[in-house]
Amino acid sequence: MIQGSETAGRAGAGAGGDETLADAFRSVARRLRETSQETLAPWDINPSHFRALRVLHHHGAMRLSDLSERLHIAPRSATEVVDALESRGLVERRADPGDRRATLVGLTGHGYDILDAIRAARGTEAERFFGRLSQADRAHLARILRKLQN
Questions:
Q1: pTM for this prediction
Q2: 36: how many CB neighbours lie within 10 A of its CB?
Q3: Residue 27: what pLDDT?
Q4: CB 35 within 8 A of CB 108
Q5: Buried-most residue among 81, 108, 122, 148 (CB within 10 A)?
C-alpha cells in the first residue's frame, strides 16, 4: 500500500476532518453559485439570463436556434430566456438581413450597460471570495481548475 493513499481523497484528513475532496469542492461550488445569484439579484437576472447575455456579447447577434445551441438548452427554453431579457429591454429581435424569414437576437445598448455593471459586481464578489488566498494560491487553484476542465 502506498503511504497516505487512505487519506488521498480526504480534504481535511490531516487535520482530523472527514470531508472528502469532492465534498469540499461541492461545498465551495455551492457557495459560489449562491454568491453569483445574490450578485445578479439587483438586476432581476438569473444565471441563465446572464449566460445568454454573455454569449450574445461574445458572438454578436444570432438566431434563436444558434443561441439555444450555444447555451445547450432546448429552443423553447431559449425563447423564454430571450422573452424575459427582451421585456427588460436588454435584447431585441430584428429581421435577419440575409434571410427575411429569420429573426436575429442581439444586445441593446441597455443590455451592454447592464452586462458591464454585472461583470463589475461579479469581479468585486470574486475578489472578496478569493481574497483570502495568496496570489500564489490563486495561481495554483487556477492551474488545477483548468486541468480538471479538460
A1: 0.78
A2: 18
A3: 94
A4: no
A5: 81
